[in-house]
Design a protein that fits this description.
This protein has four helices and two strands. The longest helix has 19 residues. It is mainly alpha-helical. The chain is flat, with a radius of gyration of 17 Å. Helix 3 crosses helix 4. It has a two-stranded antiparallel sheet. Helices cover about 60% and strands about 10% of the residues.
Length: about 90
């Protein structure tokens, strides 16, 4: 869902003070809509079998493993952590 917000937040690398990204700050209406959609779709998830849920979670695990270094680097840039700290947090999920 693309935000229509005019309010923008700068994402800054705390180690270099370099601008990493500009992201919109969601409006109250956008947040309300996201909550509404989550509530509407929860019954479908609740009725999903444990085996099907496990498949989704294993797929998520595969994606995290595929993008492990990328996620760790992003975490380092956004939070100013060492790469080893970020790798540990990424590994723990």
């Amino acid at each position: 869902m693309e935000s229509k917000s005019e309010k923008i937040l700068d994402v800054i690398n705390p180690a270099t003070q370099k601008l990493l990204a500009k992201v919109p700050v969601s409006t109250r209406e956008e947040i309300d809509e996201a909550v509404k959609v989550a509530r509407e779709t929860f019954p479908m998830w609740r009725n999903t079998t444990p085996v099907a849920r496990a498949r989704y979670l294993f797929r998520l695990k595969e994606l995290m493993e595929e993008h492990f270094e990328e996620v760790s680097r992003i975490q380092t840039m956004e939070h100013g952590k060492t790469i080893d700290e970020s790798r540990g947090e990424t590994r723990r999920g």
